[in-house]
Amino acid sequence: MCGIAGLFHPGTPKPVERLRVLAMADALAHRGPDGAGVWTAPGVGLGHRRLAIIDVAGSPQPMHNGDLTVTYNGEIYNFAEVRADLQALGARFATDGDTEVLLHGWRAWGPAMLDRLNGMFAFALHDAGRQCLFLARDRLGVKPLHYVELSDGSVAFASELKGLLAHPLLRRSPDARAIEDFMGLGYVPDDTCLVAGVRKLPAAHFLLLERGRPVPPPRRWWDLDFTRRARGSAADLGAELVDRLRRAVRLRMVSDVPLGAFLSGGVDSSAVVALMAEASSGAVRTSTIGFEEAGHDERAYAAAIARRYHTDHRERTVAADDFALIDRLTAAFDEPFADASALATFRVCELARETVTVALSGDGADEAFAGYRRYRFQATEERVRSMLPGSLAPRVFGAAGRLYPKADWAPRALRAKTTLLALADDGATAYARSVGVTTPAVRARLFTPAAWAALDGHRAEHRYVATMRDAPARDALDRAQYADLRHWLPGDILTKVDRTSMAVGLEAREPLLDYKLLEFAATLPVAMRIRRGHGKWLMKKAMERYLPRDILYRPKMGFVTPIGAWFRGPLAGEAGALARSPRLLERFDAHAIAALAEDHRTGRAEHGRTLWQLVMLDRSLARLFG
Q1: In the chain, fewer beta carbons within 10 Å around the N or the C end?
Q2: DSSP 505-561
Q3: Mean pLDDT of all residues in 187-211
Q4: Across 369-373, average pLDDT
Q5: Is 141 helix (H, G, I), strand (E, B) or coil?
Q6: Into how many domains does the chain fold?
Q7: Closest CA to 155 of 2, 50, 16
Q8: Distance CA 478, CA 523 (A)
Q9: What's the rounded mean pLDDT across residues 522-528?
Q10: CB 619: neighbour CB atoms within 10 A?
Q11: Burial of residue 124 (number of CB atoms within 10 Å: 0-12, 13-18, 19+)
Q12: C-alpha angle with apex 278: 276 to 283, nearest 5 degrees?
């Protein structure tokens, strides 16, 4: 895995200073500790930091082939297959790695080469003959790519925001809408950035910059289709699922450096480890993080899988004092990031890196096979809405929701207020709110009246609603999964894994996000995704030969950090100090923040995630804008 950065002048090909590109690349040194390279020509400069995984002794970057030059971050898992196709067309290769495939692929197929690649990647390829720079990102957004148009007319790009921040012409001012998006969702989504003017190339998009032409909008080159349905019995589809899982895992086990896996003890990581063990001649190296709080600790389940498959297993515990990691996390993410499981993810990456350079993760199965509890709620709520005429449902459920008391302290079965109010909305709006962190009502209280008005009606949830309404889908579950794959997956899950793994020089691979596996999963009938209260039904059924029932069918715990308990205990003072932050008080009301912290501390309400958001936002604003 690597870090890339560079500059391109779409207008007049002005000279590019090598030291400027070097500074941008060096800001990404953590992503590539094994080597560095810079190449410049009139109007263009490409920089690279390398973490050597395949063809360790060869494949230096930026890499050249005639008038083509590429800087690349990622892995093309099927590069041997693509390489053979290109050799059949007459291509001659000078290296044994996957980078050179991009150069010959561009020469043979142009942008259409992306359709042939199975991997995670972000790259910039310069074609001197065509006088263009081609930027591309993988289908799911596993690897990041940021870019910005600068005042001198150039376009700068980098794997992470810090690469752009190293350029002196980048103007730093916060984007107010991005702050609203962060407070609503818990992350800054891929269609915006906390630094105004900076953009992220969306997943499954490319950007073709051509000399003499204005910067165009990115173009989508792949999408996931939920409109088709597979035919076949559960046994037949389950067998196909296992076969696709097996192939996805084995593709990602190709490495010239030590390789292992994250093991949480849940279904997804356990499935990956089981299939790795099946394919491996030696013991799989596994790493687990646990928590001091028993209700969040899954080490016993991870240990059971480790014993079953005789893995070389290591574990470590995360405690409240790991809050000291916050400055390292702020530096790793650049933008504010409020998924508190990043603490544990950082620690498991750190643990894995002690013995391996590549680790396979179980990320992606919940989105692909409908594993989240919110999918079951969404499907149920849509059935209930359908029982009443469209005009009647908002009135009936809205009135009931307003009358029902709010009871965060009560057993879950008695906390119906949120559900009733959700039923009063249309399905897309209700789901958009369910995936958020801080509700619009709470955000309205937190923002000062002037800051709230300045948003001019922009709300974090709007992108979800629009995506669900336009989704290539057949029903409510399809639309919810599609929206999560477009927003939640790249914005939260994959950002978390990329930044925490790269911060310690570890390459993380996600076999459960193999695009062929996802395309198959999108065709599964709803009843094979959710059945009898279980999400990921077909996946669990198909894995019964590999995993014990207490792993497959126990209640989902999730890889979470007990942040709510921390803010009532050792971190209560940190929460109280938020109301005195000058950076937050530029946009938020001090009394509202103080009330939020006090209500949480005393147990009157649960605001742990919102408090964590405010802490992370405060630190990020200080780091980015002083």
Answers
A1: C
A2: T-EEE-GGG-HHHHHHHTTS-HHHHSBTTBSSHHHHHHTTTTS-HHHHSSPP--S--
A3: 97
A4: 95
A5: coil
A6: 1
A7: 16
A8: 10
A9: 97
A10: 19
A11: buried
A12: 65
Structure tokens at 610: 């919102």
Report yes or no: 438 and 446 within 8 Å, Cβ to Cβ: yes
Task: Characterise 265 by phi-psi region: left (phi > 0), alpha (psi -120 to 50), beta (else).
Answer: left
Q: How far is residue 601's CA from residue 457's CA, in Å, rounded to a whole number?
A: 32
- Give the CA angle between residues 580, 586, 589 to the nearest 5°: 60
The Cα–Cα gap between 274 and 601 comes to 42
Dist CA 371 CA 367 (whole Å):
7
Place of tokens 């009871």: 407
The answer to whether position 572 is within a domain reads no
Share of the chain above pLDDT 90, in %: 79
Neighbours of 92 (CB within 10 A): 9
Catalytic residue list contains 2: yes
pLDDT at 323 over 90: no
Strand order, beta sheet including 219-220: 63-65, 68-76, 119-127, 132-137, 205-210, 219-220
State the catalytic residue, choosing from 2, 132, 193, 349.
2
Least confident span in 88-92, 100-104, 420-424, 509-513: 420-424
Token pair 């292992």 is found at 260
Provide the residue type at 273 as one letter. Answer: V
Q: How confident is the model at residue 597 (pLDDT cuts 50, 70, 90)?
A: very high
CA 243, chain centre distance (Å): 26
Amino acid, res. 172: R
Cβ–Cβ < 8 Å for 366, 268 = yes
Q: How far is CA 203 from CA 71, 98, 218, 281, 330, in A?
A: 18, 20, 10, 35, 23
- Return the number of other C-beta atoms located less than 10 Å from residue 147's C-beta: 21
Q: Tell me, what's the pLDDT at 409?
A: 39
DSSP string, 264-318: -SSHHHHHHHHHHHHH-SSPPEEEEEEESSGGG--HHHHHHHHHHTT-EEEEEEE
Dihedral, CA atoms, 524, 527, 532, 534, nearest 10 degrees? 20
Residue 133, domain member (yes or no): yes
- What are the Cα distances from residue 172, in Å, to 166, 169, 181, 233, 554? 11, 9, 18, 56, 48
Q: Is residue 322 part of a domain?
A: no
Cα–Cα nearest to 12, from 147, 207, 154, 216: 154
Q: Report the predicted TM-score, pTM, of the whole model to 2 decimal places.
A: 0.92
With b for 16 or more beta-carbon neighbours within 10 A and e for fewer, the 197-232 pattern comes to ebbbbbbbbbbbbbbeeebeebeeeeebebeeeeee
Residue 139: per-residue pLDDT: 98
Structural domain including 11 reads 2-178+193-220
List the beta bridge partners of residue 290: 317
Q: Domain containing 150 — which CATH number?
A: 3.60.20.10
Neighbours of 493 (CB within 10 A): 25
| Closest C-alpha among 1, 620, 555, 582 to residue 298 | 555
Pairing relation of β-strands 132-137 and 119-127? antiparallel
